[in-house]
Amino acid sequence: MSLLEIRDLRLVYPNGNEVLKQVSLDANAGEIIAIIGRSGAGKSTLLRCINGLERATAGTIMLDGENLTAMDEPQLRRARRYIGFIWQEYNLVNRLPVMTNVLTGRLGYNQGIKSLFGYFDRADRDIAMRNLERVNLLHRATQRADQLSGGEKQRVSIARAVTQQPKIILADEPVASLDPQLSLQVMSDLARVAREDKVLTLINIHQVNLVHQFADRVIGLAQGRIVFDGPARDLDEAVMSRVYRFDKAEEKLIESAGHRVVI
Ligand SMILES: Nc1ncnc2c1ncn2[C@@H]1O[C@H](COP(=O)(O)OP(=O)(O)OP(=O)(O)O)[C@@H](O)[C@H]1O
Ligand SMILES: [Mg+2]
Predict the structure, then answer these.
(1) What is the pLDDT of residues 59-87, one digit of tens each?
(2) Parallel, antiparallel, or unpaired: how do β-strands 200-204 and 32-36 relate?
(3) How remote is the CA of residue 43 from the centroid of ligand 2, in Å?
(4) Which domains does the chain have, with CATH numbers?
(5) How many whole angstroms separate alpha carbon 163 and alpha carbon 107?
(6) Does residue 43 have its Cβ closer than 6 Å to ligand 1?
(7) Which of 11, 136, 137, 153 has the fewest other C-beta atoms within 10 Å?
(8) Which of the listed residues 12, 15, 19, 206 should we mutate to test ligand 1's pocket, taking the one with most ligand atoms within 8 A of CB?
(9) Which residues contact 187 (CB under 8 A, 6 or more apart)?
């Protein structure tokens, strides 16, 4: 049994848009997997299906033996405790201190009155502090989140995600808002903590150089299907053109608009 088992996942949005078609994959603890594909290929939708923000139209998603696709909302909320999410736009609570933002990673473990009053016990605080230290931001602990730079915000959200002690981390274009140097630092922090904690990590990403540097495995999505799944070292020109190729119908459309764009 693999930690994550996705079988024949299909997602049709209410407007009839079939965005994922027969997606199947197996992944294990400690793997760092880059998901690449053109804009609209279904990368974000895939991550949103795994954390239950979108409900699969068909197929199953099993995480550590639990069928996420068969869960009701309360069950899903409990399961999300083990699913860390990192967003392109950080999703921090701006007016709260950095430390409190990281501590929200423990909320799933502290239901009820304690968390309502923002009370976290010593063990939770120790976990959060240690993780803030791992991304070299302990000196920012008491600062408001909105006083940080983009790169620092993303490192706080990495600390928050690992503070959940998750089974899986899902990162949706975590460095898309950052310049190349900060992207490198954020990816290096993410990959390091994920490897140290042996957390399965799926990262939607467009920067191929970072894929080569930090991912073990690459999944290429094109029009809602997996068209490549293999080690990052096999990501070459041929694979790239398979993943990023133009759809014939779309190509025609662009030509008929009077110009042809190749990206
Ligand atoms: N709520 C929705 N309802 C209908 N269609 C949607 C919805 N959300 C996304 N889509 C469509 O589904 C397709 C896949 O979207 P998705 O966001 O998963 O792509 P992506 O691979 O993450 O793209 P990008 O690289 O631009 O982030 C797109 O055509 C998008 O317009
Ligand atoms: Mg996306």
Answers:
(1) 999 999 999 999 999 999 999 999 999 99
(2) parallel
(3) 5
(4) 4-256 (3.40.50.300)
(5) 10
(6) yes
(7) 136
(8) 19
(9) 174, 175, 210, 213, 214
